[in-house]
Amino acid sequence: MEKIRRYSKSEKTMQYIIEQVAPIFNKKGYVGTSLSDLTEATGLTKGCIYGIFKNKDEVAIEAFKYNLAIITDSFFKEISDNRISPLDKLLLLPKTYLKRYDNIVIMGGCPILNTAVDADDTHPELKKMAQNIVSRINKSLALVIEEGISKEQIKPETNPDKVAEIMISLVEGGFMMAKLLDNKEYFENSLEQLNEIINGLRI
What we know:
With 203 residues, this protein is mostly helical. The chain has 10 helices and no strands. The chain has helices at residues 9-32, 35-42, 46-52, 56-79, 86-99, 101-106, 111-118, 124-150, 160-181, 184-199. It is elongated, with a radius of gyration of 19 Å. It starts with 8 loop residues before the first helix and ends with a helix.
């Protein structure tokens, strides 16, 4: 029988803090989020928060990880499913983002895009984490394209890295415009174009 892990009080408190402050960091950014924001959101004192985390940096990093997991975990799980064809795996990117659009808006926008902009000149570690997740997505998509080429399902002249970069750029760029102008059509149009590009890879 699998042993059930019992979480300590400090672990439960840590998770509670992350869940409460993650949307705030995503909306206000690292610089814009104050200690009073953290205490107000959690109902905890400064001493309690910093008894769990070393400093604001550590809270921000864990909050970013939490926000990322919300939008990327299912994508990475599905894209690694060998029962799905390479082309269908690629179509998961626009499908996943469109399905979660409203929830992403509620949480303050895409954490990758928000952090990339907010942390560019203010927090090198967060910027690096944003770069790493984009690189991971690009690499995953490129590998799927290579798989499709090897299985003769995708045109052999396709450049995996270039197409992967275009895919993520359309998703993030479309979301940025939609959020900026409060118009979901920008995002939907970007995803429609992305679907056409993916289907155009088909042999």
